[in-house]
Design brief:
Shape of chain B: globular
Strand order of the largest sheet of chain B: 1-2
Strand order of the largest sheet of chain A: 1-2
Radius of gyration of chain B: 19 Å
CATH topology of one domain in chain B: Ferritin
Distance between the termini of chain B: 13 Å
Helix content of chain B: 40-55%
Order of helices and strands of chain A: EEEHHHHHHE
Number of helices of chain B: 10
Largest sheet of chain B: 2 strands, antiparallel
Helix content of chain A: 40-55%
Radius of gyration of chain A: 18 Å
Oligomer: heterodimer
Amino acid sequence: MFGYNLENLIMKKPVIKVETSVEAHPKQSNSRRQFLKMGGLAVAGSSLFLYGCNNDDDNMEPTEPGMVFDLGSGDLGILNYAYALEQLEAAFYTQAIAGSYYAGASAEEKLILKDIYDHEVIHREFFKAAITGAVSGDTSKVLPELEFDFSGVNFGNRDSVLGTAMVLEDTGVGAYNGAGPLLETAAYLTLAGKIVSVEARHAAAIRSIFLPGDTEFAGDDVIDANGLDKSDLPPVVISAVVATGFVVTPFTANQLPTE
Amino acid sequence: MNIIKFLDEFTSESLTQKVSSRRDVFGTFGSLGKKAALAAVPFGLATGSSKAFAQNGTKAHEDPLNLALTLEYLEAEFYIRALDSGVLPAGRPENVYNQISKHESAHVEFLKTALGDVAVAKPTFDFTVGGMFDPFNENGIGQETAYAQLLALAQAFEDTGVRAYKGQAGNLMGTPFLKPALQIHSVEARHASEIRRLRASVLGETLNDNALGWITLNQRGPGMPAATQAVYDGEENVTQGGVNLVTATGFDATSVSQSFDEPITGDQAVAIASLFIVS
């Protein structure tokens, strides 16, 4: 049964080389070695340098040699984190509506997917504008436009597209729910709140058309015995996203709030 | 606490035209009503922490959670009675209502536990709204119309719940209850999405804005009673964090309004819930 779990999307080929020593991938220069800090806990060797899901196993270069963007601290870090997730979703749906499954999909499914595409792009552009404004135009503090690699998704196949969409939406809900309590500014919490409920509406609709069974819109795999939805802290989400191999451009999340 | 006392202290105008005392409810219960609508706040980063802290001797979570509990009592009873009524067709409708009912009852228990002794008691509800509706077909309106009303009421309740929880999130900042409140809020949004799509399919509206799990502008949708417009007013907003997103993105107001759900204040949520509360 499909779970909400991003691990379902892990490519067959391992994409993250978890090293136990400080030594990073040999192709990286010392200045590019990065360690992902899960809150205050340094996880040595787990890097957001992602290896592409192609056979020649090229290391993906950061956009500027020697400079890897860190999401930042405090509310800025959380906003950039949300922006990253919206970039991911927008990029996925951009490809989805350009693919052959969508081209031949039912009118109902086209309506749903096109709307979700619209919403995720709007969310992405909202964060870009809002964060840029919040840092008074200092773009060095704004997450750059990330590059993505969805070669692991078959955009001609309904199960692949909707299955991936489901996981991305459920992940987004869990991410916003987990990030909300980390915010310090009430206005940002409200904004995050305005978005997460739309992501949950998306998740329910995708599940409803994709999964068999009438209860999957808010299925027992995502809603617990108290009737609570997922809530995942950023390290959990980032780790899972990294493992999909979708994100090509490296970034770090070394300064995010942990509580 | 008596539910009517609690609700009276929320609202400055009673729907039954009773003259309520003009106490400063905000002073007594915190600025529950005022904190929700933050759409026009200029977007800027705080230079220091602005986390809300409970005042000495008060528990910031109590009023927001009692509002939530009131709405959950309403939803829980509604769904139980809907399932008992025999009005719901077997199959998807019954299964959807059953799953939602399970969650709403769980939410009641969760919030009662969280509130302990200060939990409000369950109100007496009248889902007919003084005879305006007959959603459980107890007064002979017939299964088809009763079913339509069950769907309309469910949609109104779920969309209200989403907006009400959203409106209270700011009041729960700095408390351990923000996290579960957000976790309930997104579940209500899932419910809303599915109910909206189920209702649309029953109406035969499947390929337009009325078919969607998300809200378009301030449209309550075909077949929704005029009294439910209050649930949708404000949803047409296209300016977020001071940014007009139609201008900024080139997407139209339809798409931009769908992309964000809007909060409602405690007052607004109580006004809607009070329609169905008799004591």
